[in-house]
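Render this sequence as a predicted structure.
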Amino acid sequence: MALSVKERLAALPAEVRSQFLAGQPLEVLAEMARGEWWYTARPEQIPPAGRIFVYLFMAGRGAGKSRAGSEWVADQVCRHPFDRHGVPTEWLVVADTLADARTINAEGPSGLLNVLRRRGIEHRYKQSPRPMVVLPKGARVYFLGADTPDCGRGFNAAGILCDEIAKWEKPYDTWFEGLLPALRADLVDDIPRAFVTTTPKPIKLLVEWLARDDGGVHVITGSTFDNASNLSPTILAELRRQYAGTALGEQELYGKLLELSEGGLFRRLDIARNRVGVEGADPVPDELVSTVVGVDPNLTGLEALTGIVVVARSRDNHLYVLADRSTQSSGRDAALAIWRTVADYTVDVVVYEENLGKRYLKEVLQDSYAECVELGMFPRGSTAPLKPVHAKHGKKTRAEPVALRSEQGRLHIVGHMDELENQCVLFDPVSTRESPDRLDALVHAALHLIAGERRQMRISDPGRYAINLDQSVYDLSRLL
C-alpha cells in the first residue's frame, strides 16, 4: 500500500521528522497544518497527467473516492476558469440523486465546499434553482442527480465528476446519452474529461471501460483499509470480522470487480461451458420437441427494447436458446417482428407478459397476425398462438429456475448472443432498477418449456395391466 506524505512523515523517527520540518518554509508548514491534498493524499488518489479521458477510481467503501473527486474538481476549476474563447467554464458533479449530490458531494465532509474553504478559494454556494458553486471568475460547478439519462443535456461541460456510478438507475444510458455529449468545452492546452468514482459492481459500463486498451481510461484501485489512518479502528476490525473471505467483502471493501456479485444469478463460465453450435462445441440436436418465443413488451416506445428470444426444448429436457431477436420498437412494428421470428423458427407458441399496461399487447399481436395471414406467412383460418403469463413474483424468483438450468449444464446458447449474455451475467436483482428486457423474454420462454416437461405424456407397458373380460363391470378410467 502506497502511503501519503503525511503517513510517511509520521513513520520516521522523531529526530529525523523534526529535522525535516525545521527545514521547510513557513508556507509549506501552513499547508501541512491545514491538511492540503498534496500532503494527505495517497499517490493513487492523484490522477496522472496525460490525454486520459476517464479517470476511473474503483475502490472499496471509505477508500477516499469522494474526497479525491472533490479535490480533482477544485484543481480543474482553478486551472481552467475560462475556455479557449474566454467564456467561463461549466463543471458537473453528478450523483445517484440530487440529494446525494448536495449532501455528499457539495456539503459533506469530503465535499467540494470543504475543499474550497480549506484552500481559501473564494466562492458562492447557491441552492436555488439548483445547487451550484460560483467562483470569482464566473466558472460554475453544477450539482445534479442521475435521475434521467438526459441530466447533462444543455451543458457545455469542461469536466464531470460522476460519483458512485454503479448506484445510478441507468448508468450506461446516462453516460452515453446525457454526459458524454456534454463534455465538449474547448479548453486551452487540455481536454474535457471525467473523474468517475464507484464501489465496483459488474455493470455494463464498467465492463466496457475496463476492456478498453487505448489509454483513454485510467483505472485507480484501492481498498477500505488503504485509508485506515482516516477511519475508525473499531469499525475496520468489525468489517474484517464480518466480511473477510466473502465475495461481498472482495467487492465492497477491497474494490474488486467481481464477474458475479452476491445478488447475481448467472455465471459467464457456465454460459461459455454450455455453449453449442460453435467450433469445438457440440451441435444443436436434430430433434427439438418444442419451440417457443418469449416476449417482454416495450411499454415506452422510446429507450426500452421489446425482448424477443427463441428457446427450444430437446427430448432430454435441455433448453436451447436459438436466437435473440429483440428490437428497439413497440406496438405494431414490434408485433410484426415477433411474427417474423415465429415464421423463421417454426414456433409453437408466443409467451408474453400481460401485467398491467402490457395487456394491450394481445390485441396488437392478434391484429398483426391477421396481417401476416393475408401476406401468406401463416395458413388461412389459423389463430395467433398466444400464451399470456402474469408475473406474480419478482424478477429474481422467476429467473432462478432458469439460472439453475444454466448451472446444471442444461441451458445452452446457440452461438454467441453478447447482449443477452451480458444481461444474464450482469443483472443484479437486488440492487439494480433497470429492466432486463432480453433476460425477461428468455425467462418467459424457458419457464413455459420447463412447465411443459411436467405435462409430457407417460406411456406405460400395456402388459402390466390385465383385463378380465369376464368381469361384468370394470373402470376404463384406470387404464388411462
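Summary. The radius of gyration is 30 Å. The chain has 17 helices and 14 strands.
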